[in-house]
Amino acid sequence: MSSSMKDSADIAARADAAAARLAEARASLARSIIGLDEVVERTLAVILSGGHGLLVGAPGLAKTRLVHAVAVVTGLDDKRVQFTPDLMPADILGSEVLEEGKDGKRAFRFIPGPVFCRLLMADEINRASPRTQAALLQAMQEGFVTVAGQRHDLPRPFHVLATQNPIEQEGTYPLPEAQLDRFLMQIDVPYPSREDERAILLATTGTDEDQAVAVLTPDEIAALQQLVRAMPVGETVLNAILSLMERARPDRSSHADVREGVAWGPGPRAGQALMLAVRARALLQGRLAPSTEDVIALAEPVLKHRMALTFAARADGLAVETLINRLAAEAA
Question: What Pfam families does the database record attribute to this sequence (predicted)?
Answer without folding.
Answer: AAA_3, AAA_lid_2
